[in-house]
Amino acid sequence: MSAPEIAAPAPPPPKQFAIAKQRVGLDVDFATRTIKGFTEITVLPLDPTLRTLRFNCRQCNISRVTINGRAPGQWGYNDPHAKWRLHDTATVNQWGMLRRRIDPLFTSTLGDDELSLSLPNKMKIELEDPSMAGTMVPSREVRASSARDSPRIDTPGPNATDGPVYATLLVRIDYTIPTIRDGLHFVGSDDDPRYPHAFTTNSFLPGSAACLFPCIDDLWERPPVWDLEITCPRTLGDIGVDIEPYEEPLINGSSRSLFKRKRPKREDSDFAFQYHGEGEDLEMQVVCSGSCVNEFTDAKDPHKKVFHFTIEKPTAPHQIAFAIGPFEKAVLTENRAAEEDEALGRNAVEVVGYCLPGRKEEVENTCLFMQRAIDYMVRNAGHYPYPSFSLAFVDDFPSDIVSSAGLAIIPKAWEDLWLIIGLAHFLAGQFLKNLTGSNEHRFRMKKDAEEICRQDIGRAPLSNPLQQLPLDPSELDFVALKAPVVLFILDRRLTKASSSMGVSRVISKLFLNAFTGDVNSLNLSTAQFIKQCEKVGHQKLDSFFNQWVFRSGYPRFEISQRFNKKKMIVEMIIRQTQDKEVAQKGLTPQSFLRDALNRQTDGVKDASPPQVFSGPMTIRIHEADGTPYEHVVQIHEVYSKLEIPYNTKYKRLKRTRRQKERLAAFAGMDINAETQAEDVLLYCLGDVLQSDEDTADWRLTDFTKEEEDKMAQEAFEWIRVDADFEWVCTMRLNQPDHMYLSQLQQDRDVAAQYESVLHFKEAKPSHLISTILVRTVMDRRYYYGIRCEAAKALSRCATAELSWIGEFHLQKAFQEFYCFPDSLIPRANDFSDFTSYFVQQNIITGFGGIRDGMGKSPLSVQRYLLDIIRYNDNSNNSFSDSFHLANLLRSLGSCLQAGSGQRGMMDMDVDETDTEEREKSKEEIIREIERLQRMDQWMSSYHNVISTTCLDVKNRLIKAKVQEYTPLEFLAYSKEGTSEQLRIKAINCLVENGAVRDPNLLTYICYIIASDPSSRIRRETFESLMHGIGSVAIGDDVGATSEAAVSNSLTIVEENSAAKRQQEARQSADAAIRNLKEQLANKAFFKNALEPILKSTVINFLDVRKIISLCSLLYNDIQSHVVKVPMRKSRAIAVTHEGKGKLRFITNPSSKELAKLRPIDWPHLRPQPNPPPPPPPQPPSATPQPAVPKLVLKPPILPGSAKPSPPPQRNPSFSPPQPHPTPMSAVSSNTPQPKTILKLKAPSQPQQSPAAPKPIIKLKFTAKSGSS
């Protein structure tokens, strides 16, 4: 199968210059939140015809530019941030204007025309002899860092040159940043009592570094040398030391406040801050990429300190990050063993953590593994590119940390980005395997593969040249989920085929080549990676990458097996059903906007899964003697019929004998008889609780004698399909329960055990399945993840038909592990055994999942969970019980939520006593939630996890109609000053409970998005708002749910009922958009609420693009808006249309100025020809003809005045000028009247060709007195 045919993008133009070195100086002022900086860029010309230098630069006010000390010939600065705003009178219908202004920011060539400098007059690009002193020779490193498609990057030798060497140019740019929108985030102010600090907000993709200093902010432009000088206040007390105090009068008249508002001496900033809090003598520190070579007090200002850093590795500008604050230093390599230091030698890397005062112990505990992770990287990836690894912990951090795989190796094109992300996560997985063991790693991979099967429906492939840049965070999350799993199954195939190190060997070669300067490994493409893998694995991998990288989707297998005793073979039939069983992908609130936009674009073209997945599959048959036999088969077709030979004589160990052996081992008997030695099982889990006493006490059930006799006739123990984990798929195998039991008890692979637990979880509940699961929970030899999954699966066996056996087994297991002997009272908490802790939490979760026949939680479960909370004792525990209590609260909330929304005819048979008891239990649970919430307000838990959980539980109870909705409680937690976790949760609760439909709450939420000082709060609130809008679109919000509930109670659903609309909206993006327009979008309050987000000056580019995309789905693009221009009372005004949307106003024009203007073609002065006969009716045209451009001036008509007379006839001999565009003018002589306002309206026109005339412009004068 060939890869999808995609047109190759046009190659970029050749680079005319490269950056050999860049020096950056930043003076960060915390008092006014401004930056004063400079940069010196050493430009290495690659083309003698170079005349213009182009750089990226945003939100900067450039004060001075020089090239080799001389002023440039010409220079232009086009700041995209200056365009990134709408007029005050703009509405949501002007979204197209904003899109056209910011579209260049999302292209692959990020703003080539932002800052352009032409060389000074008479300055030429001159040759320079490389042998001369001081010459900067374009080495391999410089050339490799300049451009991915440079024609001279393959020069052999470290310092060889194959072409002329030109003299370098030194470009210096001085600038200031008075208003910082992107690139740097400040924390701490008068209203924020946290320690003041600041940090860069660089994203994984380029575009943010140009907000701090001019550079070539491109992924492939990586200067080999950086010099960074960062100036900041020397101590916290030096912040705002040059600001004179000024106390603002408070509303209540009191002058006492913790922080007094200040104002700067010079009125040059809207923000002014002077620190007067704890720790004024704490020294400020700077944590930055590279090595700190010096720090000293500023000679000009003793209140400032300068930090000097250098980077001598090719580094992209967006990969440079720094943080400034009163940090404490924690050296995380102090505990490294001496033997490890000797083994690493010069490759040993220092790992340092920085944190705000008082949190050093938390950093040391959190980063305990980091030293081992870096050492693993050095040993297995060949080398770490920098001498030290620093971590700075800050508040309000909005994004993830950039991995080193994107520093040493970069993608050759944007469609290769999946490879960089996948390699980083694959290395992280290999380290976790080394740290926690193979079981943990395989279990995580199995869970990730299961999640991929849930999400990979209608998704774009990993390598997608048509993807929109930069990628949405949700798309990056999916790439980070799927890419490492694809590399994992690739590693399995390579390791199995060639007995090599697989992908790990490929990664080692790539890193080694990248560190030695090999350009082909530095700029990595998918094709190069495939070639390396084929070289290591000695096999062709085109089919593999076509299925898993260039396509999307996954296979679904349906497998049947039968033993043919006559032929002594196992007959198997494997069907691929992904082409017939199309996975139903319904819209969700999270995916609504993405799916709606994909409907309009071609971003997911060729993303459909292939009809047939092909490749090798390992089938492992555990035959009657217990020996596993592996058979590797090739899957090439939709229907595959296999005949697998049987290798064992027809001999089988009877289960009765096995049970006797287990009983004998349990009783301590010695099994030495020769007749028994050959039948003893060497590995068998789940053989606990085997005695008669345990069987009676635990109410266990085993196979009957008839079932054991039937099982004794089986030819094999069990079958494993895809035993080596080489596929990401869903699989159905017609294997009986006893074979899955054998697989669970005897297979050492944790993935096989997980598959068995999943089978018992989905099978029909029975006493036998409950027995199997509880024995799995009680056997400590199982991997803890298997025990946790078995505990959660036990809740399905808690039914009235089975006498609530699942609940009984969960309670017995909890009593055995965590309660006093022969008592239901839990012991004091002891979380020293982590595996026991996780099993305990999943048993509690299992209690919360128990339901009766009406979908309600039994009262016995609610009482038992309440007792666990009331008897909770954490006094002697060395670990916090915050998450333990949070899990108990979630389980109690799930119990109350269960069955609360179901009403039917069966409710008439409910016992009144049961209703009273349930009401009493509900009140007790709510009181317990309130008690824990109040306690957390006085003694805060870790990150307020208890209060956050209480809000989440209340939110679910409100949506289930168990509690009444009181928005005031959530509003109190959403105020500025509350912890971030609580604010985010409170805002989410408001949105989920219908805040999108409430004008006041929606305005409040949009205000937070548009103006909140915390970037994390803005981002999370915006995502919550998008989910709320998506809920309204698919009919899943509170208002639509209550309306649909009435419709669902009817037997016959009407065509236009709420339930019908909701069902259609969940399946079709078009229906969801129609529903959103009908329910919300066309209402005035919704439009007014979205306007502040479009006009905000603080939200980031991705959020702006998303809100523009939403407006494009809901509203028509109107390319005009009202512009108000104040005019004086009596003045003659001449208006000239100069083209490109420019109008020039001339007040009191002279005769000469009027003569230069073109006369206006007044319609009422044209000679009126005889009217022609009416034409025959014509069919409507598909494209309407554009109107002829005109300029019409309507002077104001005051009440009681006559209509204005037409202007006098101009000289008919006057001929208009010929150059294009031809200007048009209008003259008006206004009578004395009040001050007027000019309104310009450009009506929306369909997009025309370049030669098409421009839309009509109408000028209207409106007097402030109300007359027009």
Automatic annotation (TrEMBL):
Residues 737-1027 form the Transcription initiation factor TFIID subunit 2 TPR repeats domain. InterPro entries: Aminopeptidase_N-like_N_sf, Ig-like_TAF2, Peptidase_M4/M1_CTD_sf, TAF2, TPR_TAF2_C. Keywords: Nucleus, Transcription, Transcription regulation. One of its GO terms (biological process) is transcription initiation at RNA polymerase II promoter. The keyword ATP-binding does not apply. Gene3D superfamilies: Neutral Protease Domain 2, tricorn interacting facor f3 domain. Residues 1161-1268 are annotated as: Disordered. CDD domains: M1_like_TAF2 (cd09839). It is found in: Nucleus. Residues 1241-1255 have a biased composition (Low complexity). One of its GO terms (molecular function) is RNA polymerase II general transcription initiation factor activity. Residues 552-736 form the Transcription initiation factor TFIID subunit 2 Ig-like domain. Signal peptide: none annotated. One of its GO terms (cellular component) is transcription factor TFIID complex. Residues 1166-1187, 1204-1222 have a biased composition (Pro residues). Pfam families: TAF2_3rd, TPR_TAF2_C. PANTHER family: TRANSCRIPTION INITIATION FACTOR TFIID, TRANSCRIPTION INITIATION FACTOR TFIID SUBUNIT 2. Belongs to the TAF2 family. This is Transcription initiation factor TFIID subunit 2. It comes from Orbilia oligospora (Nematode-trapping fungus).
